[in-house]
Amino acid sequence: MQPDNADAPRTDQQLVIDYLRQDPEFFVRHPSILAELTLPHDSGQAVSLVERQMIIMRERNVDMRQKMSRLLKSARVNDLLFSKTRSLTLALLDARSLPALNEVLATYMLVDFEADFVCCHIQGVNHTLDHLVNHPGELPFNDLFNGTLPVCTTLRESELQLLFPAATHNTSASAIILPLSLEDTDGALCIGSRDATRFSNDMDTLFVTYIADVLSKVLSRLQNP
Q1: Quick one: 95-223 is in which CATH superfamily?
Q2: pLDDT-based confidence at residue 13 (cuts at 50, 70, 90)
């Protein structure tokens, strides 16, 4: 005598068959399941499940290639940015005077990093140069700061004139303001672009924050030889 559940596997299979017959678009609504099935290729004029499975796998391969391409592009951009940051860091460390530091900021920020404006604002320095500005009192744009974090923002002409006094401004632009870590004084490194979207709130500030940290050390050394 066979056990009561001897026909259970067949009954379960029949339930699946009956369900799929009643719902012929099941795999259209759930295409991911096809990628997990093993199906023989046996189709007539209609598209078979295995053909549908192949389509899904091709789409997944295309998606993976696109993701890989984006990752490789991002890696190349980061490699280039790292190389430029390294060169700038070495040049900053080699600066032996404020005029030399002024030239480093102009050469590397405006040329290598393709910024349109750059200016370092600091209290209590002995010089006011094109890209290194002395302030006897508080910085004139303190209201734009956000604690000790970098700020990316779009600025009006009057605000741009405060951040980049050596340049001429006739329209809005974008900038990043990086607070400097200095002893007994305040300072900020400001980098700007005529492109109002270049410095946005969602940009990665890792490299420019590192540059600001190095610049802080160099300024402290030059102020206190």
Answers
A1: GAF domain (3.30.450.40)
A2: confident
